[in-house]
Amino acid sequence: MREPRRIPMVDLVGQYERLKPDIDAAIAEVVESARFIGGPVVERFEWALAEYLGVEHVVSCANGTDALQLALMALDLQPGDEVIVPAFTYVATAEVIALLRLRPVMVDVDERTFNLTGAIVEAAITERTKAVVPVHLFGQGAEMDAIMEVAERHGLYVVEDNAQAIGAQYVDRDGQKRALGAFGNVGTTSFFPSKNLGCYGDGGALYTDDAALAERLRMLRNHGQKRRYYHEIVGVNSRLDAIQAAVLHVKLAHLDDFIARRRRVADMYDAAFRDIDGLVIPWRDPRGDHVFHQYTLRVLDGRRDALRAHLERLGISTNIYYPVPLYRQRAFEGWTDVDYLPVTERLCAEVLSLPIHTEMDDATLEYIVDGVRGFFRVGS
Ligand SMILES: *Cc1c(COP(=O)(O)O)cnc(C)c1O
Q1: Residue 66 Cα, ligand 1 centroid: separation in angstroms?
Q2: Coil, helix or strand at residue 155
Q3: Atom number, ligand 1, closest to the C-alpha of residue 191
Q4: DSSP states of 314-348 as a string?
């Protein structure tokens, strides 16, 4: 029997094959220069990303989790200070808060965007609240206009976890569009291979318009030194490899095209699933532009796992981001008093993410669409 073809969540090999000459040349240049850590290739990528995002400073680092940790280390926070964080996110967002002995205050999310809102943040503020970490989950922006208004009124730092929404914009209070990650004091991102702008290993970055903060971040990521072997603060070792920067610089020129390709897949899914009663297609906030790091359906009536099994039998990969609210994770026992947030609970039970990437062809897309529609017994 012929092994049936499996449809993966992402197609990094297909993307590499399309960009191969440029990527191979960029990697070879680094290897031949033997400047593997820091150096001109990393600096050039930081400048290019700053220009793309419209921010003053980009500070690269070793991964997206470190970016969050560095952001919190750079701000004036003391152990026990409260940091508001959504309970429906990847673990990294809350992990670094606990790691620094700050107090993660886990809150619910908006049912349509899966993100924090200004009202949710405001309701969680106490006199110990010092910061908030909005996450732009699955590629859709949290309402940064309202969140910034609340944060400014209460004097809170804002660290935007933009690991999933690089390249997305949102309308600011002045009516102008601005890059997500550029609203708060500092934005963080991840270049994990499957992210919208992914490298060929681990990588991450921070961005900010605050020159003093950028300088502090540069020191923190490199053992607290400005001048080699003179250490002014206690830092960490978290630097971006030049090989990763070279790959990222090539891919950055394609980021808008990557986003357009993802959005095309999302548009086709939306059109195919809109009329199915048991499904909720991703809501799109008209003030932002969803970049679809994930295409995440809500499957109603307790049928999520059955749909997933049905698609699995057809060789279609799916994933559940995220199956367990952060406050139910063993790691956070003792870190939070929260034990039930209704929207987070419902989302963990209902969400299902379908394959979405830059190399999706029409035949594969149709096969996935037919698989989903077949489960609900609606024709194609
Ligand atoms: C991927 C991701 C991170 C962490 O990035 P790494 O590079 O894997 O450390 C943090 N937050 C969110 C929301 C992510 O999706």
Answers
A1: 9
A2: coil
A3: 7
A4: TTB--B-S-SS-GGGSGGGTTT------HHHHHHH
Nearest CA to ligand 1 atom 7: 64
255-375 fold: Aspartate Aminotransferase, domain 1 (3.90.1150)
In the chain, residues under CATH classification 3.90.1150.10 are 255-375
135 in ligand 1 pocket by Cβ < 6 Å? yes
For residue 161 and ligand 1, the question of a CB distance below 6 A is answered with: yes
- Each residue's pLDDT tens digit in the chain (380 positions)? 555 579 999 999 999 999 999 999 999 999 999 999 999 999 999 999 999 999 999 999 999 999 999 999 999 899 999 999 999 999 999 999 999 999 999 999 999 999 999 999 999 999 999 999 999 999 999 999 999 999 999 999 999 999 999 999 999 999 999 999 999 999 999 999 999 999 999 999 999 999 999 999 999 999 999 999 999 999 999 999 999 999 999 999 999 999 999 999 999 999 999 999 999 999 999 999 999 999 999 999 999 999 999 999 999 999 999 999 999 999 999 999 999 999 999 999 999 999 999 999 999 999 999 999 999 987 65
The answer to whether residues 60 and 72 touch, using CB atoms and an 8 Å cutoff, is: no
**What CATH architecture is 13-252?**
3-Layer(aba) Sandwich (3.40)
Burial degree of 179 (CB within 10 A; 0-12, 13-18, 19+) = buried
